[in-house]
Automatic annotation (TrEMBL):
It comes from the Bacteria. It comes from Maridesulfovibrio hydrothermalis AM13 = DSM 14728. Residues 161-217 form the AMIN domain. This is AMIN domain-containing protein. The chain crosses the membrane at residues 9-31. InterPro entries: AMIN_dom. Gene3D superfamilies: 2.60.40.3500.
């Protein structure tokens, strides 16, 4: 809508200037409109003079008409060029003003977008904080090996919910998943010397906390012992060999 308004404004401005410059041209050449009308009346009368007035008279009249016409055309051309230059200057001035206004509007819009983006980021940050508050945390893991059994005692900030497990080969690994939203606050890699389980690796996933028990032997064991406690969870792994 703003673009259509300015286009119409340019056309109206051009017509106003064209009319004004035409009037200035007439006043500068003839002095007033009466003289302008009188001169053109004479030219018209000469142009329609009777043919029986003689060849010499007709020739003289034709020369007068040509000279007057040429002079008028030259002055008209000069005045037209002046009008066009003035109109161009005025239009360019208006365009610069419009561009400045558009730049100001765009700056305001960009500022509004920036504020909206900052608000969205703040909301996202609040959501992340809320999610972190909801997530359970693994705060401690004690590992002990007695005979042919490894016991991993996990301390958590919330009670442990669903727990799943499965075995993997090459190398032999027992994978235990604590389902839900979790955060890990202990070391991710835990080495165990002189044991049939030589390393416990903790991995984080969006919907689970994963513990991987890497065995030294090639044999796979059976179901691990899973015991929920008031502090968290105890995982018992038997030596399969």
């Amino acid at each position: 809508m703003l673009t259509i308004f300015y286009r119409r404004f340019y056309i109206l401005l051009f017509l106003i200037w064209l009319t004004a410059m035409a009037g200035v041209f007439v006043l500068s050449v003839w002095g007033n409109f009466d003289t302008f009308i009188a001169d053109f009346s004479k030219i018209a009368q000469v142009g329609i003079a009777p043919e029986n007035s003689g060849n010499s008279k007709n020739g003289t009249n034709v020369d007068v008409v040509k000279r007057a016409t040429n002079a008028i055309m030259h002055k008209t051309k000069v005045a037209g060029n002046a009008v066009r230059m003035e109109v161009v200057r005025e239009v360019r001035g208006v365009e610069r003003a419009v561009e400045q206004d558009v730049d100001e509007v765009e700056a305001v819009v960009e500022s509004t977008r920036g504020s909206s983006k900052e608000t969205q980021e703040e909301k996202a940050g609040l959501l992340d904080d809320t999610q972190r508050e909801r997530a359970a945390k693994l705060t401690k893991m004690d590992i002990s090996v007695v005979d042919d059994q490894l016991l991993a005692s996990l301390s958590t900030t919330k009670s442990v919910g669903r727990v799943t497990y499965f075995w993997m080969n090459d190398p032999t690994r027992l994978v235990v998943d604590l389902r839900g939203e979790w955060e890990n606050e202990i070391s991710r890699i835990n080495d165990i010397p002189d044991s049939f389980v030589n390393r416990v690796i903790i991995g984080m996933h969006p919907d689970r906390l994963r513990l991987v028990f890497r065995l030294t032997g090639a044999s796979r064991g059976g179901k691990p012992g899973l015991l929920r406690t008031s502090d968290g969870l105890e995982i018992a792994v038997d030596n399969p060999e």
